Every structure is written in C-alpha cells, then in structure tokens.
C-alpha cells in the first residue's frame, strides 16, 4: 500500500449532510404556539393566501414546510407582534431581506398574544400587537397601579369616561391586558397635560374605526362556520393593523405640516 493510500484509509468517511425534515402545517402550528399562543392553522393558511409564505405541496395536496418556511413565518409573526406592522409592510420588509435573526431580539408574547410592555430608556412601552380574541391575563386595580405607576384615581377617571371597563369578579374589579396598556399610555399623556376630557377624541375615533372594520367583515364574523369565523378574525386583525399604520402615517404627515 502506498503512503497516499494508507493516508486515505485513515481519513474518516464524511457523510453527506442530512436534509432537514419538512413539517406538516399542524406540526408547524404546534411548534410556533409556545411563542405565539394565538397562532392557528387558519392563520397560517391566511398568510399563505396573502403570498407571504409558499410551502411545498405533495402530490396529494398536503402542505410541507421547510425550515426556511418556518423561519419566515416566525419573522412575519414577530413583526406583527413586536413592531405592529401590517402585512403589506411586512411583505416589503421580507422582499428587502428581513430575516428571523433581525427580529430575534423581540421578547416572547404574553398569554393573550400581546407583546409584554417593555420599558426602554425613553419610557415608552412596547406596542401591543392587534389581537381581537378574548382571554389572557387579568389584573386587579392594585396590579395596574403598581405596574403602570398611575394613580388609582386616574384608573377611576378612565372608567368614568368609558375609556376602560373592568370586570367585577368576587367583589374585585379586574382589568385585561389592553386596559392596563391604555392606563400606561394615558399616564404618559397626562405628563404633557392631556386631561381625561381630551381622551374623548381618541375614543370617538376608535369607535368609528372599529364600527367600519366590523362592518366590512360582518357576514364572516357572524358565520356559524368555525373555520370561516377564524379566518375572519385573522383578516380583522390585519385590517386593524393596516388602519393603525395608516392613522400613524396621517398623523406624522399632519404634524410635519404644522412644524414645517
């Protein structure tokens, strides 16, 4: 045996890299639920309908998701949850090369699908994702006051104006995640002299927008078909995110005009 042959025989045989296994839509949904409790098969299908993810199909028509498909889904869901982006903007972000690693610094969602209220240096909390589904954590008045730094009388004032509405359980009033974040936001506004009566403008605007969005999807939202109703809820959440993004852009435009 030559020296070269002997050397070759001592080298370990390298196995070809093992191809990552594709997952069914059910397995993908289960794998994402720990970080995104509100995820559902219908929502994943909705994202596919919106051309945001394109899984491979078997000859029998079953969807098979590759690891890159799952990573793309995770990016989409994080951008919705943590950066409040509507799907139209997410599509642009993905087209520009946005990846799951870019969104990996995001904190995990809370039990009701909302991003936790982080307190960055500027003092503003992380914005919540748009979730219209009921459920999630509830908080007593003491919890809300301690977590937001607001005074109890401010919470009561918000209830008097109909801005928030707690639920009485066993003699104690509890507030949901959205109520708590409203209190936090109002406390920040109050620091600039925004009084409770000024909040009627925000309340009236939100009520008009909610009525419009509900009207658009009313037949599907009232459907007795659970699948159709879930799809309508997914669509409603996306519409709400788009409307919120549009309102933000209009506000920025008008503010620039007044300061230009």
Automatic annotation (TrEMBL):
Residues 38-96 form the HTH merR-type domain. It comes from the Bacteria. One of its GO terms (molecular function) is DNA-binding transcription factor activity. Keywords: DNA-binding. The keyword Amino-acid biosynthesis does not apply. Residues 102-127 have a biased composition (Low complexity). SMART domains: HTH_MERR. Residues 1-20, 99-135 are annotated as: Disordered. This is MerR family transcriptional regulator. It comes from Solirubrobacter phytolaccae.
């Amino acid at each position: 045996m030559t020296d070269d042959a002997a050397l070759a025989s001592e080298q370990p045989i390298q196995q070809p890299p093992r191809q990552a296994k594709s997952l069914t839509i059910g397995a993908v949904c289960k794998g994402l639920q720990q970080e995104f409790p509100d995820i559902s098969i219908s929502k994943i299908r909705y994202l596919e309908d919106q051309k945001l993810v394109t899984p491979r199909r078997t000859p029998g028509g079953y969807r098979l998701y590759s690891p890159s498909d799952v990573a793309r889904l995770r990016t989409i869901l994080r951008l919705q949850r943590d950066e409040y982006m509507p799907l139209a903007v997410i599509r642009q972000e993905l087209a520009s090369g946005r990846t799951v690693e870019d969104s990996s610094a995001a904190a995990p969602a809370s039990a009701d699908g909302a991003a936790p209220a982080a307190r960055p240096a500027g003092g503003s909390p992380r914005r919540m994702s748009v979730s219209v589904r009921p459920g999630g954590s509830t908080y007593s008045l003491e919890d809300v006051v301690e977590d937001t730094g607001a005074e109890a009388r401010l919470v009561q004032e918000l209830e008097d104006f109909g801005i928030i509405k707690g639920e009485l359980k066993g003699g104690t009033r509890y507030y949901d995640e959205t109520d708590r974040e409203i209190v936090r936001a109002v406390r920040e506004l109050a620091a600039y002299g925004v009084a409770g009566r000024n909040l009627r403008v925000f309340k009236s605007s939100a009520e008009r927008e909610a009525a419009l969005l509900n009207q658009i999807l009313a037949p599907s939202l009232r459907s007795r078909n659970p699948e159709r109703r879930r799809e309508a809820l997914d669509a409603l959440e996306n519409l709400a995110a788009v409307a919120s993004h549009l309102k933000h852009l209009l506000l920025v435009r008008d503010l620039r005009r007044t300061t230009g």
